[in-house]
Amino acid sequence: MNSFRLITTYSPWLILACLAAGALYAWLLYSKRSPWSKSINYSLAALRFVVVSFLCFLLLGPMVRYIANETIKPTIVFAMDNSQSVKLFSDSVQLNQAQQRLQAILTKLQDAGYETEIRTLSDTTKPETLEQLQFGVPATNLSQLLQNIRNDFTTQNLAGVVLLSDGIVNQGISPTYANYNYSIYPVAVGDTVPKKDIVLASLRYNKVTYSGNRFPLEAELEQQGFGGKTVAVTLKENGKAIDRKTITLKQRQAVQQVPFQVMAGGLGKRHYEVEVVPQQGEFTGINNTKHAYIDVVKGKIKILIAAAAPHPDINALRSAIETNENYETELFIPGLTSLKQQDYDVAILHQLPGRTAGGDAALNLVRQKSIPSLFILGPQSDIQDFNRLNAGVRVNTTGQADEVTTSINPNFSTFKVADEAADRLQQYPPASVPFGEYQVAPNTETVLYQQVGRVRTNKPLLTVQTAGNTRNATLLASGTWQWRISEAANNQNPVVYDKLITNLVQLLSAPRNKKRLNVYPAQNDYTSNDEISFEAEAYNEALEPVYGQNITLKVTDEPGQTKSFTFANGENQAGVNIGSLPGGRYTYTATARINGSLQQDKGEFIVEELQLEALHAVADHNLLYQLASNTTSKLYFPNTLTQLEQDILKANHKPVIDSTEDVRDLVDLKWLFFVLLALITAEWFVRKYIGSY
User: Fold this and answer.
1) Beta strand 158-165 with 183-188: parallel, antiparallel or unpaired?
2) What angle do CA 410, 411, 415 make, to 5 degrees?
3) What is the pLDDT of residues 392-427, one digit of tens each?
4) Which DSSP string corresponds to 60-90?
5) Beta-carbon contacts of residue 154 (< 8 Å; ≥ 6 apart)
């Protein structure tokens, strides 16, 4: 029921004054002799009386209070655990009967005046009836299901939730830890009797390994009822058996480990499969297999650190570099260590070229193999020889040194420095740099500037040069070992220093990307339950980003089946979503015609198959019982659904009335303006028509 009330900010007795003002105005205007009839005169006087009285009334600040009442029926939500385990480990006939009986209860509740809604674990699964429900979701998160219902029905009259489930939860937290402001009526399905079964519970392995190395892969077996039995465990690579072990399942040990040592051959993502040969009498064989996807990469990045002479900087550099386990350093100091002839990825040349002989071997190796290098200048550096290297910065100095601190170039974005850098760099002690003039080449970016006191100069301290397919960097300071020690003393960990050095090494070792089409998955790894999306970047001949290019993406699975997708890249576009895919290793090829030139990119990604629902074949009715107890309800079974119907109806949930109040100034109602305008216009028109103003 709705109500309407008019209120004023002043005494309602003033309304009489408004009426008096309107009457006086009408009498003064229409009491005189007029050229029209008395009936018209009275009508015009009435119009004037109404308009003036109402305008005076608006001066009192009247407000309209409108109360709208809405009757909200009680709602019963049927929350269905449509996971795979319900279908796998429940009697199919009993499950179908439960679905039919719950649908009948839903219909009867609707006839009794209840609102009903069906919810499932998956937002994309919305069956019209409970009988149409399919049990195929690969993971169970009952907490999220019940939490979403609570959030969505906050403003509704939620009377209760009928939850059909086996109680098996393998994602999220246990729903028993949350508080619910509605009654939960759990309907328990599934079998609580342990089954004779062997389960390959998990695989333990590193997701990245190096080519040519052996890496461990450990399988974890669980068994019920097979103690003393001998089983075979097979390891396969791309479907071909590469190792096989026979183990005896121990009587009183439910979990056993089966280790494998695998040789990582080739590069890229490799697909391994561990399988336990099914045994006679085993409940199911679907949980006897697990898959592993391992990215085999090139061996560790080798970094040559060559120095004119021993220096504390060298130890600081090596310590920073070796915080990344993918980096390996080799040290060369003339007269102390020999230069190993290896394929180095990066060279760090400390005060080389130098004033003393002995460092030519390292410089020649760098030149011959075009190794990306980080040059570090110091008192022993030969500045003239360094300038002849064209490393991106030219130094004109008289041989004197200057003491400077560091300042970040805010416009440098080739790599990201640590978040703490701005504060911690200010704490670094001064470093020694050549005093003089600096010339930075056009193909060179400045990472750090020299700062004298509180004044940041435009002189570079650390630069990065991009020349052709390689990069070089120059650090124009020696004594930076004090930076690392100072940061460690003040902050426990020298995060900024280490991150700066490792980022430089990573940048120098990375091949220059000249691709004009770059298409890649948004994540490196997906599960079979994830939506898979790709992002794309396109560039013109000058390697400037361009948008709106039509891109064709072809995704191929291991058996060779291909799916094609077409999309356009955009500045603010998220690429393309290709939906979910079954577990496996996938390759993709993307093509686009950019300014008439056909460009291509390719790569691979993996999708891990979720087997969570097959790990536990025993229903957890105790969890459902706790849910019922926490919400002052009780546990039901497929054969007691009649009692469930009676309990809901006996609860006699009542509709609630939701009232909303709206208070606004009367003068804000636009339609009143048009009413007053119509009255004034009518009065003016009649007087004009008859012969007055």
Assistant:
1) parallel
2) 90
3) 999 999 889 999 999 999 888 677 676 678 888 888
4) T--EEEEEEEEEE--EEEEEE--BHHHHHSS
5) none
